[in-house]
From TrEMBL:
Protein source organism: Microbacterium jejuense
Stated name of the protein: histidine kinase
Record's subcellular location: Cell membrane; Membrane
EC number from the UniProt entry: 2.7.13.3
Residue ranges occupied by any Histidine kinase domain in the UniProt entry: 619-832
Coiled coil regions in record: none
């Protein structure tokens, strides 16, 4: 019997519309004449979902009694007996009641598939077995019901039913997902915007990987070798050398240019080409790959270029990043084109990036103007050409010698002299000219095989050979000097442009400029020394004998150098000294930039302090004056009236003085507390405390009853790590603020819950709320948002609450209340070890 087809509707979270989509698809198929039945559907009381079941055949569920409770489950035998063409099965990861044929619903689905029945089912990404740990880290909720990855991956079709996180929260707030009593708890815990965004990304990435696996299988089955650029895959070849970090960061930037780009690093283990490398460097580069979001691979291959290209093709790579060869030009000329050229030739439609780095064979160094125009290497090559080319040319000409070929023989040797002059300059050319003259005389001028100058014209021929060699060498020397001067000018311009641009990068520019200077001038080491003798930046190593040149970098007001640049290595010529002076000027500008930035930061701190001081003086001059004046007036009235004051008036004045002094004491305490927070000297004593107990203590202090506050405390809330005194003050401030802004008759809801390693206390009001752009101002000292009078104090309550909470290692975060209002969330870490729950410690 042909096995049925499985179609899975994958969702990021409950409520995205998986069941709705499944029922709509079932109705469409039924309208097309297909035999569709509902094997099991969970509507969760949603009217719109239940309405879609009308008109579809429903296989009655079977009832199982477990511990005295009647449970209904899918009747697998009933579905098999009905033998429909398509069965709709909701919640693939569901755990069946004990006593049924299978423990899990996905096993029931396997039975239906084996019977040839097509199945459309639903599952949330948090129920996929391999993702359980990741989901728990995101949401703090462990999933008990899971389905093996292999079951979902084996499906013939997997579709993501997608809904934006905010749209899902809106549906939840509107009561379209959960009943009203569960909305607040769901929004504040599992259905947070960040949680939903992460789950959505997880679902899309899981499906993308599944599609990628299907694509690889298809290409393998059909023998397709060319890369299909469905998404950007960048393979970086690592040698274990120091250039690996540069290559990885370049590859990461290339991968980041397109959505869904993937970074893969590969190291080929072999004894030639890309050698095994430094294990320490490879380990560091592997850690860097993982931090960049990529993956590390290691393959073994004798042919490094072929191994790299084969790996890139197997990974369906679109880009291959390799480093420029670390061999010098002579080594490359002797050993062949190298790995880079071979990879480019074999890569086909894979783009190859060859990235330069500091370990390359030709580092950026200023060409030197001293010494000969041609390098020693070129002169040696000229002598080698003369020594090898002369005998080869002689052998060739002797083989075809005749009386009529003497002119050709002379021109051939003259050509050799010109070639040697072009390659090696004057001395190899003179050497080739002399050797050519004697060779012509010995092999081609009669009498043969003797060196005899019988005819004076032969002497002139030798002289002409030398003159031609000198003239050609002179032209070559002039051209080489001009080319080197041009390269020098270009290199100087590049160095100055780099140094000038580095000034704009601030503090990080100084070490970069020092490193660039050492590399460009070919020095052993460069150090920038401060006026106190401390090293500001250094690159390379100082020479052992301590010889160095120094250059003053900038000047202070008294004329002393701002810093000193030490240059260790060869003596500098005039042009290099000019460049160093330009670098020193730029370094002085960079140091000044750094000093100005530090001054600006200090000024910013002073400005903030001055702002707080001004606000404090304003608050003291206004808010403290009222209770102080009232207390002074009450005490003055008592003193002036003396015994003539009636008992009622005396009691009223005493009450006024007491209330004013109490208010004054509270204001002064708040001022001292905010001063300690601003100074960073807040004393915190962390212990394991009962969060629910602190909530009740705060309510007692406020005198809040059931008419003002509604409690929803989690009985299983673990102990939290906090300072009980500070936590109570935080709750009193926040709860009082919520009660003050709640409309008449509306109660403030206080709830507790746990989310992973964090315990949350949520204070929910249904007042006017605070717009998102003004929420940062809520926690600014001496700010009273929306207050029209000064009876609310100095406006320090929320500022103190935030400072106290952060001092205890927690957070105080404002959120919107569904339906309007503000929710303040106090989040604190759960205690490391749970002690017996009891009184506040």
């Amino acid at each position: 019997m042909k096995r049925g087809r499985l179609r899975v509707l994958l969702g990021a979270a409950p409520g995205v519309g998986k069941t709705y989509e499944m029922l709509e698809e079932g109705r469409r198929l039924a309208d097309d004449g297909r035999d569709v039945v509902i094997a099991v559907v969970e509507t969760h009381g949603r009217a719109a979902t239940a309405a879609l079941t009308e008109g579809l055949t429903v296989v009655p569920r079977t009832t199982v009694t477990h511990r005295g409770v009647a449970l209904t489950e899918m009747d697998v035998e009933g579905v098999l007996e009905r033998a429909p063409e398509i069965a709709l099965v909701d919640e693939l990861a569901h755990t069946n009641a004990p006593g049924l044929l299978h423990a899990k619903r996905w096993q029931d689905v396997e039975t239906l598939l084996d019977a040839g029945i097509d199945v459309i089912t639903t599952v949330n990404v948090q129920h996929i077995e391999s993702l359980g740990g990741v989901v728990e880290k995101i949401t703090g909720v462990a999933q008990r019901e899971t389905v093996p990855d292999a079951v979902v991956r084996a499906a013939d079709q997997v579709e993501v039913v997608d809904l934006s996180p905010q749209s899902l929260r809106d549906r939840l707030s509107a009561g379209l997902v959960y009943p009203a009593e569960r909305i607040d708890a769901a929004l504040s815990n599992y259905f947070r915007l960040g949680n939903l965004t992460a789950l959505r990304e997880l679902a899309l990435l899981w499906l993308a990987d599944e599609v990628d696996s299907a694509l690889k299988s298809y290409r393998a089955e059909h023998g397709i070798q060319s890369a299909w650029q469905a998404r950007e895959r960048v393979v970086v070849a690592l040698t274990g050398g120091g250039e690996g970090e540069t290559l990885l960061r370049r590859g990461a930037r290339i991968a980041a240019r397109s959505a869904g780009g993937e970074l893969l690093a590969v190291h080929v283990s072999t004894q030639d080409g890309l050698r095994s490398g430094n294990p320490t460097a490879l380990a560091a580069q592997r850690a860097l790959v993982e931090s960049l979001g990529g993956s590390y691979h290691q393959v073994v291959g004798d042919d490094v270029p072929r191994a790299l290209v084969e790996f890139a093709r197997s990974a369906n790579a679109t880009q291959l990043v390799i480093g420029v060869s670390r061999r010098g030009r002579l080594s490359a000329a002797l050993t062949g084109p190298g790995i880079g050229a071979t990879v480019i030739r074999e890569s086909g439609d894979i783009d190859v990036h060859i990235v330069t780095h500091s370990a390359a064979g030709d580092r950026f160094t200023l060409p030197r103007l001293s010494g000969g125009a041609l390098s020693v290497k070129r002169r040696m090559l000229g002598f080698a050409l003369a020594l090898v080319g002369g005998p080869l040319l002689t052998w060739l000409l002797v083989s075809f010698r005749s009386d009529e070929t003497i002119t050709t023989d002379v021109l051939a040797y003259q050509l050799l002299v010109v070639l040697v002059a072009l390659v090696g300059g004057i001395w190899p050319a003179v050497f080739a000219a002399v050797m050519s003259g004697f060779t012509l005389n010995y092999f081609f001028a009669p009498p043969l095989y003797t060196i005899t100058i019988a005819d004076p014209r032969n002497v002139w021929a030798l002289i002409l050979y030398v003159v031609i060699a000198v003239l050609v060498s002179f032209v070559v020397d002039r051209a080489a000097r001009a080319a080197r001067a041009a390269r020098r000018s270009e290199a100087e311009a590049e160095l100055l442009a780099t140094v000038a641009g580095s000034v704009l990068r601030g503090e990080s520019a100084v070490p970069a400029m020092v490193s660039r200077t050492r590399e460009s001038l070919g020095l052993a080491g460069v150090r920038l020394i401060g006026p106190d003798g401390g090293v500001i930046a250094t690159d390379g190593e100082p020479v052992r004998d301590g010889r160095h040149e120094t250059v003053a970098v900038g000047r202070t007001i008294d004329g002393s150098p701002r810093a000193t640049l030490e240059l260790h290595g060869h003596p500098l010529d005039a042009s290099e000294r000019r460049l160093v002076d330009a670098v020193a000027a730029q370094l002085a500008a960079a140091l000044e930039h750094t000093d100005l930035a530090a001054t600006a930061r200090t000024a910013g701190v002073l400005a903030e302090t001055d702002q707080v001081r001004s606000a404090l003086l304003s608050a003291v001059s206004h808010d403290l004056r009222r209770p102080l004046a009232a207390a002074v007036a009450a005490v003055g009235g008592l003193r002036a009236a003396g015994p003539q004051l009636s008992p009622e008036d005396r009691a009223e004045l005493v009450a006024t003085a007491d209330e004013s002094l109490t208010t004054l004491s509270a204001l002064v305490t708040d001022l001292l507390d905010v001063s300690r927070i601003e100074a960073g000297v807040l004393a915190v004593s962390l212990v394991d405390v009962d969060g629910a107990g602190i909530v009740l203590s705060a309510l007692d202090e406020l005198g809040g009853g059931p008419d003002r506050f509604e409690l929803a405390l989690d009985p299983d809330l673990p102990l939290v790590r906090a300072d009980p005194v500070l936590l109570q003050r935080v709750l009193v401030n926040v709860m009082a603020n919520a009660a003050r802004h709640s409309p008449p008759g509306a109660r403030v809801r206080v709830s507790t819950s746990r989310l992973g390693r964090t315990a949350e206390i949520r204070i929910v009001d249904h007042g006017a709320g605070v717009s998102p752009e003004r929420r940062d101002d809520m926690f600014t000292p001496f700010q009273r948002l929306g207050d029209s009078d000064n009876t609310a104090g100095l406006g320090l309550g929320l500022a103190l609450s935030k400072g106290f909470t952060e001092g205890m290692g927690g957070t105080l975060t404002p959120e919107d209340t569904p339906g309007g209002g503000l929710t303040m969330v106090v989040a604190l870490p759960v205690a490391e070890s749970a002690r017996p729950r009891g009184a506040v410690s």
